[in-house]
Amino acid sequence: MLTERVFMRKTKRGNILKIVREHYLRDDIICGSAICKHCPVSMQNDDDIVLVANPSAESSLFKFPIYLVPDTNVILDQIDIFEEDAICNMIILSTVQEEVKHRSSAVYKKFRDIVGRSPRHCYVFVNEHHKDTYVERKPGETANDRNDRAIRTATKWYDEHLQQSQLNIPKAKRIRVVLLTNDAKNREIAQNEGILAISVDEYVKSLTEHPLLQDKLKHKTYEVESSKNALFPPHLSPAEIHEGIKSGALLQGSFMASRENYLEGSVNVEGIEKFVLIQGRESLNRAVDGDVVAIRLLPEDQWSAPSEIILQDEENDPGDVLEEETEILAVKAEVEKTPTGVIVGIIRRKWRQYCGILQINQVSGSTRHIFVPAERKIPKVRIETRQAEHLKMQRIVVAIDNWPRHSRYPNGHFVRALGPLGDKDTENEVLLLEHDVPHSKWSEEVLSCLPKLPWIITNEDYERRKDLRDIFICSVDPPGCTDIDDALHCRELPNGRLEVGVHIADVSHFIRPGTALDKEASLRATTVYLVDKRIDMVPELLSSNLCSLLGGVERFAFSCVWEMDHNANILETRYHKSVIKSKSAMTYEQAQLIIDDPTQNHEIAKSLRHLNRLAKILKKKRIENGALILASPEIRFQVDSETHDPIEVEAKKMRETNSMVEEFMLLANVSVAEHIEREFPECAMLRRHPNPPQTNFEPLIKAGENQGFEIKTDCGKNLALSLDAAIKEDNPYFNTMLRILATRCMMQAVYFISGTVQNEEYFHYGLAAPIYTHFTSPIRRYADIIVHRLLAASIGADSTYAELLDKHRNSELCNNLNYRNRMAQYAGRASVALNTHLFFRGKTQEEEGYVLFVRKNALQILVPKFGLEGTIYLNIPKDNSRHKPGAPVFVFNKDEHTQQCGNIIFHSFDPVVVRLSLDSTNVQREKLVFELVKPYIEGFSVEPMELSVDDNDDQKASDKVSESTPKRPIGNADENKPKKKKNKKTKK
């Protein structure tokens, strides 16, 4: 059966265009119920019969069994309850499914997984193509009203259709079809039409055998703008926000909450060089990290500066009151201030599900409790739950529902429990969820895109590619690396030149544009590396097998080959898709041993020595151009092969071979960037590193001055020269710390599309490169896949497609890549922190450290042995009410970046001895505690531990610091001596 709709449209030229849309209706679409006797038997098979003949009647509202028909808004608003098996025997209308897909891809994906679970008995009914359930849109009817009518029509048809098959069953026992809708108007119309219709709240509360399901209900409330007890100003309406942005009175941007001060945040506004500072609860005005907000910039005389105080909301629920903030946020008049604003409206919420623990209400029998997120940037959330005792020692997931003006914290609902607190698997799941890392199992749709095994290279493949199997190519990677995406070679040519090749895994051959695999890889954007596992961007068949450049195995590659002279000058560059056969897959240490062993003169050894020599020349040239050699503390764990728990921790060691590989990867990225930008000037995917504002360098400059060095920051080259000159013979770690501090002053490097910014903004500050991209790691970075496709199109090895050349679409893709890259870095650091905590459980150690930063109320300490950073919190000065009577008083000097207690002064890079132990008293956030041992401050420092007999192999940490202390004393030497007291022996 065919139905037609005819439209008349007037073209720009004034012509009348007739448009005919055909819609096919069928009479052979079955209802999917086991009780049905009227659907065509010839069209049925066992897989089509999904709805059971005897659904359980668990609802106290109905004395008969029922099938459920949820409408669109029910699924969008209450998706969490549908994850429970208690909600089953559902008829999913195609109208609803398409609406959900259109309005929220995330909810659609989750709901599609729920529908596919076997015990749920969910049947998808294509009502839009059934001859009895399709409805035309009436003149003047909105699309939403038409869809509501289509849902009611299908529900009523289903109920009447099933009644015909139950004529021999008493009416009181017949299966009925019930519409679930929270739309009061739609529910009333349905009931007037004879349809059984109830709200989700009514239905869930009627499931008396599942009382805990009520915890998952999302509760909607509406703001009362005239509320007398409002704590926050009202948000502007969408129309007011739109008008304000249009007129320039308001600005919009993405809100980022501070990790160090819960009363502070910033907004990244396009067109303003610096982030706009937001300070104080009222100015933050219920914004949550990630929200897109509208802000009003304050007059310049009201601008402020970021607080030096590290401040966390640690207190129990104080009720709906706001604390006094004047002292916390006070800023000295002479401090350089930054643009400051207030949030006046929310343009788009970016709420997600959050992990944390329950802070139980002390009132007996109360169902209202506080949820404390694991992520410090997220506010506490008020939830209602009837299972507080069961959940109090578990990690749970909560979703935010709303944040009324009169409430200090937002309201939310319980979603699910993850597992016991402190359990390693649970904590790993938490850090993945908290950093929004996609880590679900690969869908069947994605897996269907993979090549079938056994996979072989065909004769056609050899003909289309450059055959480089005879060249002595090798890879150099960290130990245990299985996703090997780069390999190198260097050989002497008959003309006296050197041929150098960088060979990168040809992942784009296996991931074709627009496929489910391509979409999933673009969503994940990057592989996430944790201490004991990795979350792959692509399935393991590709990452560790077919795309990995394993030794002795033929693989597809994308090769960048240069001809160079012996001074590393590039004379010619070629790009081609190739077939390679790596002669060896080595670790950095193995490659270094070959280079350093003069007895080894085979082809791989010759290649490595050439590469190492050229890399040193390339590095020297980069540094002369102003490239920065920065540093960051990196930890390497030795993990138990069975338990996967850390058994040893140490700072990561760097070798010449690390630098060798890095130099050629950088060179390949620069070469490819120049090529694709030349070929595609409007749509090349590049990477830039913005120049940091000079104010970012203040801590670095002050720290250098305190140590007698002038750090010049007017340009990258002068900064690099200043860092090179800052050497202290009595402290070999000083220069590394200075470079770590310089790293903290940098801006984030980001992906962008060439046609969206000016050419001078392409510059990569850290590398001193006019243009740069990512080409060398397509197994673990989606940006590299896009670059491969552009490069392939430019050399005729592959064809372009519309999306590849769409700069606006790819700019949105860059936003996702930048976000996922940032979250992957945070997740990696969180994994290191988790494993550090596991390592220090039951241990107490004293180690030499250095003051890295001096804050207004804290010292940030670096322990080189472990590459660890931690914070020693100081007492607030006497004029602050939080100061403890009798405690030592620390005075912060903002100009000098120092803390003084008596005649002991702490500067950046001063040596200290600290005691490291794990504090597990806060079950939500176990933390590694740093306590000051030396210099000794009465009433603040802890006394050195006495070593047990078992500790004789270790040197005393206090002896270590004495040997490495610079000539300039930290304070009076006599005052630094602790009083002799007997301590209990503490085993490490």
From TrEMBL:
Pfam families: OB_Dis3 (PF17849), PIN_4 (PF13638), RNB (PF00773), Rrp44_CSD1 (PF17216), Rrp44_S1 (PF17215)
S-adenosyl-L-methionine in keyword set: no
Broad class of the protein's primary localization: cytoplasm
Cofactor(s) for this UniProt protein: Mg(2+)
Classification via CDD domains: PIN_Rrp44-like
Limits of the PIN domain: 66-188
Designated name of the protein: Protein DIS3 homolog
